[in-house]
């Protein structure tokens, strides 16, 4: 029973997506939303099952797939995977519900692509076979590329092509690293009884990586780091992100920022760190410096942005830079903080992009200079916006504070000076977010914002739960931290702490 939970989490969205392709357009959104709610219920059930036995998790399925090259359909959920699966299952219903008012052409295909992407994302977060991980990794790129290309805006063809090429090239580096490691997984002489065949199993790859000399591990480090750094993205591999986030439809932007970038940060924890520990220790300083540069750079660029959606896009680069730096400190605080901030950032950024969409739908602009005084005509929206914003700037008792506190704590253990620069994300984040709120919501109402309509039922159904989650996770993050702790300790024991 328990080993089928993981398979169900992967297979159900795919089956629902196939059903949508044969559904009339009018009912597609309702079926997609119902399917996403069922998926979330299944993820909660998995969470409860795992919480009963988080040290030796039994939520795993390992079946032979391509025996000739040692590939298995090996999927499993431990505490780290559980948080990412839960985040994915939580956000997809919000993303689908937020698009109910949008008049998408061919909604059956649109929502089907969202569910296929959910399937691929869940596969990425549960794959325990390197080949299978790569398959799901690449599969996640296809539906989001079609979503951005078919329903995006502006110069979407050029922008989505750049996004596709960027991420594909990074993925090819990772594939090369996997194939190289695969060569070292067999033991004994080929053709003898003592020979144990090559395998893409995660433990076999861990052992293969650890057997390499530091120089070889360094090359493998960069092969994987490039793939993950582009996906997050980390400076200087971020140039595809702002344009793609702005050109994508709001649902696509939410998928990219709320969930897809977590593929990169998750990849650091699950694959890169334990795969080549000597390579990590050799290059962690460089990775942390690049991450911190990204924090300061993206924050400064966000301050001068005039478009609200682009501002939020740059703020995402700053937040993910802090997550990356914290993970590379190789401390329990940094890794736990990274996981908590991945959850918090996903919830916050989906809320912020939805708020930007609400404003655009009523005023036909996202330019900060053209807005103002919305609070005067829609105070309820102003309150919800403010709480989401405060979660983003890590106010105490919000979800953002838990992750950022642990991250900066972990970075401080690594270096006081680096922590000083990384901590600028708190100050600069407050500057650009509060200034944007002031320009959009406060001041005098003008001709653009005077007719700002009240929130609809569907909009409230998205924003109010997000606000509740921001506060609830800020007040009581213990269940999430507890379930991840055993897996985090295991990763740290493999890679080793700060030397």
Characterization of the model:
Strand 1 (60-66) and strand 2 form a beta hairpin. This protein has a two-stranded antiparallel ribbon. The two termini are 43 Å apart. It contains 21 helices and two strands. The chain has 499 residues and is an all-alpha fold. Helix 2 runs antiparallel to helix 3 (79-98), helix 13 packs antiparallel against helix 19 (424-441) and helix 17 packs antiparallel against helix 18. The chain has a domain at 289-499.
Tell the overall outline. globular
Average pLDDT taken over every residue: 87
Indicate the radius of gyration in whole angstroms: 22 Å
Largest sheet: 2 strands, antiparallel
Oligomer kind: single chain
Any low-confidence stretches, pLDDT <50, length ≥5? 188-195
Count of DSSP strands: 2
What is the helix fraction of residues, given as a range? over 70%
What order do the SSEs take from the amino end to the carboxyl end, as H and E?
A: HHEEHHHHHHHHHHHHHHHHHHH
Strand residues, percent: under 5%
Question: Briefly, what is this?
Answer:
This protein is mainly α. Helices cover 75% and strands 3% of the residues. The chain is built from 21 helices and two strands.
């Amino acid at each position: 029973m328990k080993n089928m939970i993981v398979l169900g989490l992967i297979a159900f969205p795919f089956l629902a997506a196939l059903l949508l392709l044969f559904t009339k357009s009018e009912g597609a959104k309702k079926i997609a939303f119902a399917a996403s709610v069922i998926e979330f219920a299944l993820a909660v059930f998995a969470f409860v099952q795992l919480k009963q036995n988080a040290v030796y998790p039994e939520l795993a399925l390992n079946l032979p797939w391509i025996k000739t090259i040692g590939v298995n359909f090996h999927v499993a959920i431990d505490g780290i995977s559980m948080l990412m699966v839960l985040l994915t299952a939580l956000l997809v219903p919000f993303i689908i519900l937020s698009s109910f008012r949008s008049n998408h052409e061919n909604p059956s295909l649109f929502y089907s692509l969202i569910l296929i992407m959910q399937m691929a994302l869940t596969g990425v977060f549960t794959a325990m076979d390197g080949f299978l991980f790569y398959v799901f990794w690449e599969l996640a790129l296809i539906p989001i590329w079609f979503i951005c290309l078919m329903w995006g805006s502006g110069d979407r063809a050029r922008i989505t092509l750049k996004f596709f090429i960027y991420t594909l090239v990074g993925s090819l580096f990772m594939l090369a690293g996997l194939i190289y490691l695969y060569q070292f997984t067999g033991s004994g002489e080929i053709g003898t009884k003592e020979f144990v065949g090559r395998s893409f199993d995660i433990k076999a790859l861990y052992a293969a990586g650890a057997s390499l000399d530091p120089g070889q591990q360094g090359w493998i480090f960069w092969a994987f780091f490039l793939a993950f750094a582009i996906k997050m993205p980390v400076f200087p591999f971020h140039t595809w992100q702002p344009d793609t986030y702005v050109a994508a439809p709001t649902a696509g932007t939410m998928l990219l920022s709320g969930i897809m970038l977590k593929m990169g940060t998750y990849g650091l924890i699950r694959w890169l760190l334990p795969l080549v520990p000597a390579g990590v220790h050799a290059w962690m300083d460089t990775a942390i410096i690049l991450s911190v540069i990204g924090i300061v750079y993206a924050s400064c660029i966000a301050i001068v942005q005039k478009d609200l959606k682009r501002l939020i896009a740059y703020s995402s680069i700053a937040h993910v830079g802090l997550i990356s730096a914290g993970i590379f400190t190789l401390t329990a605080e940094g890794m736990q903080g990274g996981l908590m901030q991945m959850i918090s950032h996903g919830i916050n950024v989906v809320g912020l992009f939805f708020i930007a969409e609400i404003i655009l739908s009523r005023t036909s602009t996202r330019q900060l200079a053209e807005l103002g005084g919305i609070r005067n005509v829609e105070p309820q929206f102003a309150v919800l916006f403010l709480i989401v914003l405060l979660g983003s700037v890590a106010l105490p008792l919000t979800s953002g504070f838990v992750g950022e506190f642990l991250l900066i704590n972990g970075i401080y253990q690594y270096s006081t000076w680096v922590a000083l620069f990384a901590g600028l994300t708190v100050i600069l984040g407050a500057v650009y977010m509060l200034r944007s709120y002031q320009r959009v919501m406060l001041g005098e109402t003008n001709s653009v914002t005077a007719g700002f309509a009240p929130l609809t039922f569907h909009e409230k159904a998205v924003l109010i739960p997000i606000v509740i989650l921001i506060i609830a996770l800020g007040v009581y993050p213990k269940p999430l931290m507890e379930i991840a702790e055993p897996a985090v300790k295991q990763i740290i024991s493999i890679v080793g702490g700060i030397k």
